[in-house]
Design a protein that fits this description.
four-stranded antiparallel sheet, Jelly Rolls, 3 domains, Topoisomerase I, Chain A, domain 4, 7 helices
Length: 257
């Protein structure tokens, strides 16, 4: 992020973290953003049954921008995996820069989009692993053993969805809502707004997928009844076309529905 790096050089404060040192704790007040210059940071979500690694922040990446922009408490705990150098920028300076620099706002949007892509890749990998596990079940002999294995796999899948997808999706959605408030003039602003809308629709689609899989688990436990409802195929097609329109425009492809 060239514009952010320039801002950090002018206004940032450097800090060195020892291995295992906590940068900030989940639930703490958000006071600024951190840019990693060397080392690695682990992002952990604390739950009742333990702490779960959500992602790794590498050199050249930023952490804490969602809380700094929205004022909400930290959504996760961040800890140094080894000796790590970071540059701190206060929430006040960060938000002022977002308002004054459309280029910086566009870079932050790109960062959020990258995290959404990582979440999408995680979802695909999770689905592949689940299919492989189901194939293993087919090799088991005996109905009781197969049923027991299927129940265990379903519980594992539900737990992975909650910890590995729902939490980062919530953070991404919050960041997208914040970016909608950034006003960028001219054609660049229209393009950025279309990208934000596309990212937001993708995040909502992934959230619906997570909710659907969890609903299936509840239905199997007879805690939920299925009620069929009409679906507008036209609206479904129009939504998909709108999601692909920004990419099509860049490739000079016209999409009509």
């Amino acid at each position: 992020m060239s514009h952010l790096e320039d801002l950090l050089r002018r206004r940032g404060q450097e800090r060195v973290l020892a291995p295992g040192e906590v940068l900030f704790q989940q639930g703490a007040d958000s006071d600024g953003v951190y840019f990693v210059t060397s080392g690695w940071l682990g992002v952990y979500r604390d739950e009742q049954d333990g702490s779960y690694l959500l992602s790794i922040i590498a050199p050249g990446e930023m952490v804490g921008e969602m809380g700094a922009s929205t004022g909400r408490p930290r959504a996760a705990t961040v800890m140094a995996s080894k000796e790590t150098r970071v540059v701190y920028l206060s929430s006040e300076d960060f938000n002022r820069a977002l308002r004054e620099s459309p280029a910086l706002a566009a870079e932050v949007i790109g960062s959020v989009g990258g995290r959404l892509t990582e979440a999408d890749v995680m979802r695909i990998a999770l689905g592949h692993s689940y299919r492989q596990a189901v194939d293993r079940v087919e090799l088991l002999t005996g109905q009781a053993a197969r049923l027991e294995e299927l129940i265990r796999l379903r519980e594992e899948l539900a737990a992975m969805l909650v910890h590995d997808l729902r939490n980062p999706l919530g953070v991404i959605s919050t960041g997208l809502e914040m970016l909608k408030q950034v006003q960028i003039p001219g054609e660049e602003g229209e393009y950025v707004a279309s990208i934000v809308d596309t990212l937001n629709r993708s995040a909502l689609r992934m959230q619906r997928l997570v909710d659907t899989l969890l609903d299936i688990a509840r239905m199997e436990e007879e805690r939920m009844a299925l009620r069929p409802a009409p679906l507008s195929l036209r609206e479904l097609v129009e939504e998909r076309v709108e999601e692909e329109r920004p990419l099509a425009a860049r490739l000079c492809i016209s999409l009509e529905c």
